[in-house]
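Input.
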Amino acid sequence: MYIILAIVAFLIMILLHEFGHFVTAKACGVRVEEFAVGMGPAIWKKQKGETLYALRAIPLGGYCAMAGEDGELPDDPRAFTNQKAWKRAVILVAGAAMNFITGLILLFIVFSSAGQLSVPVIGSFFEGCPYEESGVLQVGDEFYSVDGHRTWFPGNVSTYLARGGDTHDVVLIRDGEKVTLDHFTFERQLYPGETQELIGFRFSAVDATFGRTIVHSWRCALDFVRMVYSSLRDLFAGVVGIKDLSGPVGIVSMINDVGETSESRADALINIFYFIAFISVNLAVMNLLPIPALDGGRIFLLIVTGVIEAITRRRIDPKYEGYIHTAGMVLLLGLMAFVMYQDFARIIMN
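Output.
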């Protein structure tokens, strides 16, 4: 059941991404030739007006094919390449924006069902905690940042305090004002009744009101964006390798694992919604990277060609941009094939 749910969720994410392009293109007056979910041969298709709607056999992507997208059609004023730059940029951003909004909605559903929200506010201390006795930390203190990193959740605080030793620069919010602790040392010790060494305080939770849930969802989405960029830095720094990447097959497998390891079906749905929200935000960020064939690459080349045309006062033939995106697509398909092979290998080995 969870595998089917995962496949459906993945197809919906693709559908919503392409729908973002589709509805924005229509609103901007661009002629859409085909709106397809999936790749490869069509298993269902229907012509409605000027647009062909299709469901294709391989659920690894989708597309919104606009007239003149990869080459200029000078006799068609509704071609994508004949639109103003701002219109093209809006159409290109719309897909990622739809994925980001989808992630926000799913996070709102998840946190609304929780009843309470964990916040990076000290709720109580363990007995004998030296920071309570000295008064340097107080109940109600909110962790604003650790070592310059904004902290929205208790997990953020724990993550950043675990990096770079025991000494950190911390900013707290106390009685509405910022309190700075420079080069402050957090020492862990074993408290009565505990099985591991801890800093000595517990975080609190607040009721999940409508307003708090909206803010919490927004901050969680931003935290997901930060996690994606952190992962990309690790990839370029060599901390992780291409072998650690996962594609659609791996994502479906992970969603299935999330469902099967949950305590109940209700918990499974909530956990899967949370995971899908992360994947949806991840897709939004990755799609806006300045890589040829991706929306971010198209936006980047849109800016570059705009600058060149402003300087030279000559229109650059869109076919050259098409060549770049075609080369990028070939490389991306090669990477996808490699990642898919690894995903299947991991599943078989497990």
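The chain has a mean pLDDT of 87.
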